[in-house]
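User: Please run a holo structure prediction.
Assistant: Happy to. Please share the sequence and the ligand.
User: Here you go; the ligand is coproporphyrinogen III.
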Amino acid sequence: MQLKNDLILRAARGEATERTPVWLMRQAGRILPEYRAVRNRLSGFKELVETPELAAEVTIQPVDILGVDAAIIFSDILVMPEAMGLTYEMVEKRGPYFPQTISTARDLEALHVVEGDELSYVYDAIRLTKKELNGRVPLIGFAGAPWTLLAYMVEGSGSKTFSKARRFLYQQPETAHKLLDMIAQSTIVYLKKQIEAGADMIQLFDSWAGILNPVHYAQFSLPYIEKIASQLSGVPVTVFAKDAWFALKDMQDVSCRTVGLDWNVDPEEARKLLPNKTLQGNLDPCVLYASPETIRKETATMLDRFGNHPHIANLGHGVYPDTDPDHVKVFIEAVKSHKK
Ligand code: CP3
């Protein structure tokens, strides 16, 4: 299938593009009334994730409604712990919850490295989405980075500090490495199958990168990201490690094409540290609460700071749930009409 708009793939490969491509992390779900309409008909979040026809529908909504240059498959990073044997619940208005958690080496006995078929609903959703997109824009597949998934599996839910998960690294480093390795192996199988099903690009979300100290990040996160990224071929890989400004320079040596930046990072600094990578980001999601005039101004300033470095425009983290979709459109239009 020939893509009609492959801007994002060319930018990821480091090629010059006629304009900067743009999409938003967490664009599927969260902000669109059209998403809520689908969601409200169902028993819950998991039914949506596990029903390929519905997942495909909400994946394509932002392409139709917002005009983004890529779709991201509607799923969650937490489908992986579940496939390995640790079920999650999505509690309305509160977030994820794991009835069972990992706290000792014995708990690993209940887990297994995935063979792939556990997550066939994701590949089915990808195949269906590709068919329905009909080449309009590329489709991004994704997974959580091993450290971020371990954090949820040990903590059992979201947390401000993830102190149980960090404590685990100090008290049981060997068990932590064992679990991280199981997650990494599972993720390689999972992402290869996403690519086989039609994902044109892959992003790894290390959402809790920034709570580790630099030494722990180098021991417990980066090697597993590299293990995964180095095993994926044929499509460009993006690594987004939120708040890991201290590890930016190390990303230069990771087998990915693109590095995602949160809004704390100075684009000009990142360009110097990562001369051979495409950069993605990094507007503060709160800019979208401002007036259209301010959104245009801030977006132009951001784009100018990336200059002619290969760049994919995005926010510095996922779009916040109470953002006005019309303001998202202002951001997207501002990127599209920007003169390099
Ligand atoms: O980008 C996209 O739009 C694709 C869909 C997607 C979801 N989750 C759907 C979702 C993606 C890429 C994710 C990734 C994800 N999930 C991350 C990494 C990205 C990040 O934001 O740092 C993390 C940490 C999670 C875990 C998770 N899932 C949490 C903490 C929550 C609750 C809070 C919230 O709204 O995000 C979820 C639920 C979730 N995942 C929702 C959506 C649309 C909202 C639930 C609903 O519709 O009921």
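The first strand starts at residue 71 and ends at 72.
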